[in-house]
Amino acid sequence: xxxxxxxxxxxxxxxxxxxxxxxxxxxxxxxxxxxxxxxxxxxxxxxxxxxxxxxxxxxxxxxxxxxxxxxxxxxxxxxxxxxxxxxxxxxxxxxxxxxxxxxxxxxxxxxxxxxxxxxxxxxxxxxxxxxxxxxxxxxxxxxxxxxxxxxxxxxxxxxxxxxxxxxxxxxxxxxxxxxxxxxxxx
Length: 186
Hints:
Blueprint: E1 10-13, E2 22-25, E3 28-31, E4 38-41, H1 43-56, H2 65-72, H3 95-110, H4 129-143, H5 150-171, H6 174-185
Antiparallel strand pairs: 1-4, 2-3
């Protein structure tokens, strides 16, 4: 199996950017709790924020997990995680989540390097760095408390499935098939 290397943008980040560390006042977002700040890939903060909104943002939601999953799944079905052309159904869809994800991804695109290393703007053929960062953030969220039950536990399990969907859409199934075959051989 061949692994390619592409440049990434690294710099000072919050390190623990999640919904609980953002306070909203009118139209201002105020970020708090900078104790985890560090120098890491810039995409990590955006990915952690989106993963937090996905898991923690629905804590008070009372709809069945299956309904919740089908309402947010379209956001994760495009290879480049493009959400600008999606028209969510306002009857069964959390419009606030679509709006928040659109904003997070809008800024994340600015920190994604193209696959050829020619610059920092998002373009066709990019390396899907945000997709990889988001899949990692979702897997970390999914594995945070493996014994958790109830709706939050189900959302965390769904985060694992969404991470797999993102990776397959962005990078194809070749790596999945190879890892499945390797796991079966051991």
